[in-house]
Amino acid sequence: MQQQKIPSLLSLILKTLRRILTVSWLFLIPAFLLLIIFVLYPVGDTIYQSFLAKGNFVGLQNFNYVLFEKAFPLINIPNIQLGAFPMGALIDNLLWIVIHLPLTVFFGLAFAVLLRDVKGGTIIKSIVFLGVVIPMVVGGLLFRFVYDPDAGVVNALLRLIGLGNYARDFTFYPQTALISIILGSVWIWTGFAMIVYSAGLQGIPVELYEAAEIDGASRWKTFWRITVPMLRSTTLVIITLTVLWELKVFDIVYVATLGGPGGASSVMAYDMYLEAFYSNNLGSASAIAVLLTVLTFGFAAYMVNRMSKM
Amino acid sequence: MKVPSILKRLTGRKVTGFTILIHIVAWMIALIWIIPFLGVFFASIRPYSEVQFGWWNINPFHLTFYNFVDAWNGISASNAPLSRALLNSLLVTVPATFLPIFVAALAAYSFARFKSRVKDLLFLVLVLLQTIPQQMVIVPIFTMFSNLHLLNSYVGLILLHTAFGLPWQVLFLRNFFSTLPIDIEEAARVDGASYFKIFRRIVLPLTLPALASLVSLQFVFVWNDFFFALVIITNPAMRLAPQIVPVLQGRLILNWSLLAAGAMLVMIVPVAIYIALQRYYVRGLTAGAVKG
Questions:
Q1: Per-residue pLDDT of chain B (292 residues; tens, 9 = 90+)
Q2: A31 and B106 in contact by Cβ < 8 A?
Q3: Is the pLDDT of residue A139 over 90?
Q4: Three-state DSSP class for A148?
Q5: Residue A30 is nearest to which of B22, B103, B167, comparing CB atoms?
Q6: Tell me, what's the pLDDT at B167?
Q7: Closest CA to B139 of A67, A267, A274, A255
Q8: Angle CA(A243)–CA(A247)–CA(A249) in degrees, nearest 5?
Q9: Of A43, A63, A153, B12, which has fewest CB within 10 angstroms of its CB?
Q10: How far apart are CA A11 and CA A60, in angstroms?
């Protein structure tokens, strides 16, 4: 009697334990195994490597080197003072944010609001959104084509309006290379902000607009008093994801300018790639990667914290 | 007065000057946004000599498919044919789409149904991992892959894409699972169904729309990825489709027609996926974003 009961109790406990373990924890194992091997360990190793030079611990020396001292530093102070390019890959990323972020957010919101009331708006939205769907190497190539001195639309238009003297391949000149690929990337990324804003617009209760109409509010006033405030959290999400995109940009630079001429349009991700796979300088490459991650991670954490307080 | 009345009959709405204005602006936006695509399209179907000074010059206009044939077959020994690269891309993209979704679904189900303190912490780690740039892992990954002979192998690349896709997919699916009614699952459990059976027979079918979102997004992400492929695949015959774009560009001679045809072939796949699964693609992209 006793002997029979113990094994059955034990097996019951084991069975229950196994059930809980199977589902609750075993389901997590494949995901976290992959994440540990391919993300967490490499992230830790990159941080570790960023403090090493030829196997020796060198403190923050790599960071100082990549930020200020190397041939094309991330922050080129003399050139910044002169207002000349290259100003450094970190500055280029910041310029990217300063120019690209307001333009994409503004166009995204304007297009979403405008196209909501337009017949065929869905088709136009799909056209604008195509830039997000195509590979970014193709996107970069498309606007190189647009800037081509002979075959490109931009220069043809310049010639058409009598500014033919200014016609050139804008990606070839230090003064214009960066700004031209930034503007090209506005063309690529506006669709993202637009599509997210469109989804956000659907979440605004129609009653608010009806009430505003009854009160005789103008379109302009309705837009600023209802649409914009109701889209606040959507805007914060778009800003977060867009800034992350701007910091991580790589493909466009690789295909459109190779960071050139003379590093004038390099960005951190591209600079990191050069340090790692052309200069074989793993310490500096890791230092750039860490700096880039501090920026993406820090910004994301700040924004998430801000959103959670709303 | 006449134009608005025609428009009114066409649109069935009251047409004001404002309505006409926003329609003009809207179609101008469409024109600006489609011009780069038109350029590439017309360059790809015409000989280079005709588009050299602008694809909009329509005199003479000859239709040719030689650009596509050249891009497909590769014009010289140094250029891997795009036919091979497109196949390579499929070989990577298909497993790198379905593997992470399966792994993420298991993890997300666990997060949604069995809560604990430790899991909240793990979940937070997962959310934070979404911000990690590819550059942050590439040096150790390169070393690891070179030791394990995974450079120039699709296995390593597929696993890497799987791991990088997991954070947002688990997050997305956990939110989705949390909205599913738990009653059906509990009824099935009372009937003696195992957890795995419940997961496979009840949860997965209900999750199909969410899975369609994940498939379309992950497929496009992996297909479009350039950086991981660039570092891990260096053997010309094994290169993936996006890697061929800069190769076709050449360094000295720029043949826009050939390049355009290549670009068309590379982007047609994600564009087709987007058109086929548009609703799911957009829903997936905006789901996390709008909720906040």
A1: 455 566 566 555 667 788 888 889 999 999 999 999 999 999 999 888 888 888 888 878 888 888 898 888 887 655 668 999 999 999 999 999 999 999 999 899 888 888 788 888 888 888 888 889 999 999 999 999 999 999 999 999 999 999 999 999 999 998 888 888 778 778 887 888 887 788 778 877 888 889 999 999 999 999 999 999 999 999 988 999 999 888 887 656 678 888 899 999 999 999 999 999 999 999 888 876 554 3
A2: yes
A3: yes
A4: coil
A5: B103
A6: 92
A7: A274
A8: 115
A9: B12
A10: 57
**A241: which 2 tokens?**
């994801």
Question: What pTM did the predictor assign?
Answer: 0.89
Closest CA relative to residue B226, chosen from B261, B270, B260, B169 = B270
pLDDT at position B1: 45
Tell me the domain boundaries of chain A.
Answer: 2-49, 76-308
Predicted pLDDT of residue B292 = 39
**Distance between CA atoms of residues A217 and B95, nearest Å:** 54
Q: With an 8 Å Cβ cutoff, are A34 and B227 in contact?
A: no
DSSP A75: S
| Helices within chain B (DSSP H only) | 2-11, 17-44, 48-51, 66-73, 82-113, 117-129, 135-147, 154-179, 183-190, 195-198, 204-206, 208-224, 227-232, 241-249, 256-276, 278-291
- B54 touching A (Cβ < 8 Å): yes
Query: Which of A38, A103, A273, A306 is best to mutate for the B interface (most B CBs within 10 A)?
Result: A38
Q: Can you read off the two tokens belonging to residue A115? A: 């196209």
A56 pairs with which residues across the strands? Answer: A53
Q: Can you give the residue ranges of every domain in chain B?
A: 2-73, 82-291
Per-residue pLDDT tens over the stretch B70-101: 888 887 655 668 999 999 999 999 999 999 99
| Cβ proximity of A248 and B133 under 8 Å | yes
Cβ pair A243, A299 in contact under 8 A: yes
CA dihedral A10, A16, A20, A22 (to 10 degrees): 70
Residues 6+ apart with CB under 8 A from A284: A62, A65, A66, A70, A275
Assigned token pair, A135: 């590979």
Q: How many CB pairs under 8 A join A and B?
A: 281
- Structure token pair of residue B180: 């599913």
Q: What's the token pair of residue A90?
A: 């970190």
The alpha-carbon gap from A277 to the nearest alpha carbon of chain B, in Å, equals 8
Give the helix ranges, DSSP H, for B45-65.
Answer: 48-51
Q: What is the ipTM of this complex?
A: 0.89
pLDDT at B5: 60
Handedness of CA B70, B73, B76, B79 (dihedral sign): positive
pLDDT value of residue A175: 87
Provide the 8-state DSSP code for A83.
T
Q: Which of residues 61-100 of A touch B (CB under 8 A)?
A: none
Domain spanning A76-308: CATH superfamily: MetI-like (1.10.3720.10)
Residue showing tokens 């990217």: A96
Q: What is the pLDDT of residue B9?
A: 60
Tokens 């990606």, residue located: A171
Residue A135 and residue B224 in contact, taking contact as beta carbons nearer than 8 Å:
yes
